[in-house]
Amino acid sequence: MKTRSIWHNLRRGYGIVNRLTPTYIPLTFVSSFINAVQPLMILFLSAQIINELAGARDTSRIILYAALAVGLAFVLSAANAAVSRRVTTLNSTLWARFYFFLGNRYMQLNYDQVEDTMNNEKLADIEAKTNGNGLGLLRLHYSLPELLQPIFELIASIVLFFGMFTAVSSYEKSFITSPFATVLLIILVLLILPFTYVLKKREERIQQTVFEENPKSNTYVHFFNEYMKAKNAAKDIRLYKQASAIEEHYNKSVGAEFWYRIFDLIGKNNALAAAVNAVLGGCVYLFIGLRALYGMYPLGSVVQYIGAVSGAVGALAKLVSVLGNFITNNQYLGQFFDYLDLPDNMRENKGNRPIPQGDLEFEFRDVSFRYPGADNYAIKHLSMKFNIGQRLAVVGLNGSGKTTMIKLLCRLYEPTEGVITLNNIDIREYNYSAYMGVFSVVFQDFKLYSFSLGHNVAASESYDAELAKESLILAGFGSKLNNMTGGLHTFLHKDFSDDGVEISGGEAQKVALARALYKNAPFVVLDEPTAALDPIAEFEIYSRFNELISNKTAIFVSHRLSSCKFCHDIAVFHEGRLIQRGSHDELITDRGGKYAELWNAQAQYYVGA
Ligand SMILES: Nc1ncnc2c1ncn2[C@@H]1O[C@H](COP(=O)(O)OP(=O)(O)OP(=O)(O)O)[C@@H](O)[C@H]1O
Predict the structure, then answer these.
(1) Pairing state of beta strands 577-582 and 569-574?
(2) Where does the ABC transmembrane type-1 domain lie (predicted)?
(3) What is the spatial distance between Cα 132 and Cα 134, in angstroms, rounded to a whole number?
(4) Is the distance from the beta carbon of residue 80 to the nearest atom of ligand 1 less than 6 Å?
(5) I need a surface site. Which of 353, 447, 513, 532 has the fewest CB within 10 A?
(6) Do 449 and 591 sit in the same domain of this protein?
(7) CB of 406 sitting under 6 A from ligand 1
(8) CB–CB of 181/175 below 8 Å?
(9) Is 308:91 a contact under the CB 8 Å cutoff?
(10) Residue 310 shares a structural domain with residue 404
């Protein structure tokens, strides 16, 4: 983790809090000020009333103080109620904005960073520490009133008890009335600072030890929480009776002991702090009481000083505690900023060339690729050209590198060695976002969202309805669309709409295909585009493939070799290498070749039937 100073982290952290909830900081200033000053103001006016009652008994003054106390209490309470209402709303909206902020950053990460388990762990840890322990950025947000209120309390208390030090005794001099006693009291009160600091440091140390002893506890909690509720795990969990196995795993990895130790310590610390505060409070009472006996303070001022000194002691303790919290929290803020600062190697420091107009010719030049952390190369010395406007079928056994080649072409990963070019220029020199616009891809593990059908096809809330319909019809979804009463406005799934529809795996694949067609990009990539389609739908797609793709360049990855026959160009991958390329007729005549082996293996089933 990068080390940053606490001030740097606080400045940056509060900058983000201000961006997420813009009026929160000024409003918290106001409400903390009122919360701190209001009771002390009432204390001051009450003291004046008592002094008046015990002294001159001037009725008009007593009425004035009482009216001021009631009036101020009313105005400040009303103002505070209005401000607090808004602050409470901001408190409850912050977490939603914060989680969107975290998720949005995730959506901006480079793809290789998303697939990197370390980054996923980082994010899970940040979310869990925020959720479970209120650490990180949310701690800054919620700590703001805890910081501001004691500061205002301290200032107001000092103003109120200042007279205590300047008053003189009309009786004989003694230790109690001497300035030494005052200094002793101040030292006693200030002892609260190192004491609270030591408590906080102890809390931080133990908390850190507990986290270190359970390095992945938060990640596990987060993972299990997600996993237990994941829709695509629900069938397997039931059929393989995973619930008890998950429970066993959960209990092993996330012991209750973990939380118990932290909260037990916090409880003990709080009790110790309360006890020390009570003893200090007793000393203050004694000191002021004795001085009153020596005639230094009138009755009302005794009340005022006791209240103000107690207020100051409490404020100091709170202040040290919250500053200690900031110190403890600094490492979690650092973790959060490390995640925000993950390097953007795909977009930064790279060329910004526009995508050329006209024909686009891509070429792999001796490209090799190894996934981060992997021992073996997934792609080895791959050299191949994609002929403009042609359809290339890519076939090969599982794990032979077909999808990896597509990820490299789409710049989701960068080659470990070699270059990929577009019109003879390294693809890294092109503007990243514009480059993404060149491809319409349907991956094997495509994702549709619980938004409207139209939104899913257009990948946007606003869209060309005619084009969306046309794309759906081309993708073979026409009859299903006709049966949907809401048409393009129908929601997929029921997450956001009770009228949402569930669609089958094959229908989802058609919608994903329609999304690729709607994008109308010059290069189409279909990775196993018909794996979930029934034979009739598959036949329809292939017979209309030329119509679907029109004059675009297309790559078509499939395990069904019979469905690749319509491509005049077939590339055979094996163990990360391109080992054969040609038309079906050419490849099948190479009897010892991989293609013929795969073809014959599949043909057996059909012949046997
Ligand atoms: N994210 C990843 N991290 C590490 N290794 C990976 C990752 N994705 C794939 N691999 C490995 O790279 C190799 C090639 O995988 P790839 O997905 O490209 O194969 P494929 O030919 O598309 O397979 P399939 O036909 O099963 O889809 C495999 O050995 C696989 O284990």
Answers:
(1) antiparallel
(2) 27-328
(3) 6
(4) no
(5) 447
(6) yes
(7) no
(8) yes
(9) no
(10) no
Selection from 583, 551, 580, 550 nearest residue 566 by Cα: 583
Q: Is 401 in the pocket of ligand 1 (CB under 6 A)?
A: yes
Q: How far is the CA of 592 from the centre of ligand 1 (A)?
A: 26
The total of structural domains in the chain comes to 2
Q: What ipTM did this prediction achieve?
A: 0.98
Euclidean distance between the first and final Cα of the chain, in Å?
Answer: 61
Q: Do 320 and 372 sit in the same domain of this protein?
A: no
Nearest CA-CA partner of 335 in 137, 201, 193: 137
Average pLDDT over residues 63-71: 90
Pick the last residue of a domain from 291, 309, 340. Answer: 340
**Cβ-based neighbour number of residue 348 at 10 Å:** 9
Task: Output the six-digit token pair for 183.
Answer: 């200094």
Among the listed ranges 32-36, 88-92, 367-371, which one has the minimum average pLDDT value? 88-92
Q: Is residue 426 part of a domain?
A: yes
Q: Which of 110, 369, 371, 442 to mutate to test the pocket of ligand 1 (most atoms within 8 A of CB)?
A: 371
Regarding whether 378 and 332 lie in a shared domain, the answer is no
C-alpha neighbours within 13 Å on the C-beta side of residue 105: 18
- The single-letter code of the amino acid at 244 is S
Q: Is 223 a member of any domain?
A: no
* Nearest alpha-carbon partner for 150 in 244, 40, 43: 40
In a domain, residue 508? The reply is: yes
Q: Convert the pLDDT of each residue in 348-385 to its tens digit.
A: 656 789 999 888 999 999 999 999 888 999 999 999 99
Domain that holds residue 577: 362-608
Give the sheet arrangement for strand 391-396, strand by strand: 439-442, 523-527, 553-557, 391-396, 569-574, 577-582
Per DSSP, the three-state class of 8 is helix
For residues 209 and 307, membership in a common domain is answered with: yes
Query: What's the pTM value of the predicted model, to 2 decimals?
Result: 0.76
Please tell me whether residues 334 and 366 are part of one structural domain: no
Ligand 1 contact via 291 beta carbon (within 6 Å): no
pLDDT of residue 256: 59
CA distance 409 to 103: 26
Query: Rounded to 5 degrees, what are φ and ψ at 369?
Result: -150, 135
Structural domain contains residue 248: no
How remote is the C-alpha of 501 from its chain's centroid? 29
Measured from the CA of 407, which atom of ligand 1 is nearest? 18
Distance in Å, CA 427 to ligand 1 centroid: 22
Residues 6+ apart with CB under 8 A from 476: 510, 513, 533, 537, 540, 541
Q: 246 or 421: whose pLDDT is higher?
A: 421
CB 465 within 8 A of CB 551: no
Tokens 């107009």, located at residue: 357
Same domain, 185 and 331: yes
Q: Please count the residues of the chain.
A: 609
Say whether both 301 and 434 belong to one domain: no
Chain segment 311-337, per-residue pLDDT in tens: 888 888 888 888 888 888 888 899 899
| Ligand 1 near 400 CB (within 6 A) | yes
